[in-house]
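Researcher: I've been going back and forth with a colleague about how Chemotaxis protein CheA might be arranged in three dimensions. Neither of us has a model we trust, so I'd like an independent prediction. The organism is Pontibacter locisalis, in case that matters for your notes. Sequence below.
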Amino acid sequence: MKSREQEYKEIFIAEALEYYDALNRHISDLERNPQDERLLAEVFRLLHNLKANAKAIGYLQISDISHKLETAFSLIRNKELSFSDEVVMVLFDGVDMLGDLITNVDNPSASEPDPVLLRNLDIIVDSLSDSAIELSKVQKYSSSKSLTLSDLIYIQIKKLDHLLNLVGELMIDRDQILAISREINNDDLKNVSSHLYRITEELQYSVMDARLVNIGTLFNKFPRIVRDIAVAEKKEVNLEMVGQNIQIDRNILQIITDSLLHLVRNAITHGIETPAVREKAGKSSTGSLSLKARNDRDNVVIELSDDGKGIDFKKVKKVAVQKELVSADAAENLPDSEVLSFLFEPGFSMAKEVTEYSGRGVGLDVVKNAIDSIGGLLKIDSKVGEGTTFTMQLPTSIAVKGALLFEVDQIFYAIPLIHTELVVAMNVNELHEVGDVMVADIGGETTTVVYLNELLNAPEGEMKLGDKTKLKGIEQNIIVVSYNNRRLGLIVDKLYRQQDIVVKPLSRPLDKIELYSGVTLLGTGRVCLVLDVPAVTRYFINNR
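Model: Here is an independent structure prediction for Chemotaxis protein CheA. You can compare it with whatever you and your colleague have in mind.
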């Protein structure tokens, strides 16, 4: 396994060699057309980027020579230095030296900068008059001129998407072959299927690894964004970022980009108070915003926290009652977690006024839907006067998901692990009928429990979710899922195993059934429906 430093170095070398080739090409073109402003600007940009990248990774010689060349082209752009034959020769020599330094970053002694050449660069940079330059006595810098190709290539994301889909198909066939090999007592088939399993697993992880990018590619855009929003809102905000090196699937990062931006805007516009209000409340005048990423088993967790005023639970209840999402009586007795779930209802907004960054009627439901679409989880926690934390739990891959297999009424189902909190077995006497639902004490928390067979299959008018007589046997297998700050226990007939699955979308007209996010094939060839936990939770709440 490569270290992060080795990966960064390889990426730097690949980009730097591209810059080197481009510089040679552009300077050759400039020699024929020295007045081409577009080419001059591009050369200047390449040298500036190379200087910054080299300095960031600690290659100071490359940074220093890039800086000298950048300065020389700045003088040429400003008409303070002519693009003479002597100057062109020194510039080419300088670029050749850059090429050698880049190629030999692991062996600096093999490409020590030539002190004659460095003096010429200094003369070009420091002298504003051509008459002061004496370059005719100089020996030309000797470069190896050997042609080398980079060890890294760039590949379009859509090609990796296609490759991952093919791997998913291969995994389905692999599982079927494994199942057949268990039924047929043949040593050769068992050996081949075992080898196939190892190869496909390694192929799967290799393709998934190729799609990973540092989360810092997104995080590092936020210091400027936070500064701009804070200035517009007349607030002072300090941003702390942790975990930029955590890696995540590039497509997942792309999907959550707008969601994270929305949450950051909300935190500054709605959460963090103005300096005067903060000081009056005994807080520092500068608000704190933290953006943290970490790994949690097979998932990536992103936390956005602010130390602002927190969420006004009474106000949320009031708006929910006004929008007829809940009755006034029911709202009084709701736990905080249920109150917070209203924030994710479509169009739910408590903004009093429209500003450049908030109050445009785009609520947190947009964020929720984006995270739901990739099988992620969004949680919110808030304390009045202390602040709010949003937690995104994201899968590392979209195509392959960890799932729990189970059976209801002789039909196989799968449920994504990311939505699964725990699995428990309970005696039927531990379930209590309250109104039209069943509840149970699970892990010290009162949790609503439903028999999944009744929820999925009973005609709507005959559905009795709180009727214990429908249950089979004494021991009940319960899968506890969570969505939108709500916990729900699903009673199933049989529990099987955890397994990585490849989810395929349902074809028409089955794709209109909201309770299922797709299907997968088991090793036996049986079709297995994949439950959509957000849809199941919403369906239960609507029916209740």
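Researcher: What would you highlight for our discussion?
Model: I'd start with this: The chain has four domains: 4-132, 157-210, 214-312+350-395, 400-543. After that, consider the following. The domain at 400-543 is CATH 2.30.30.40 (SH3 type barrels.).
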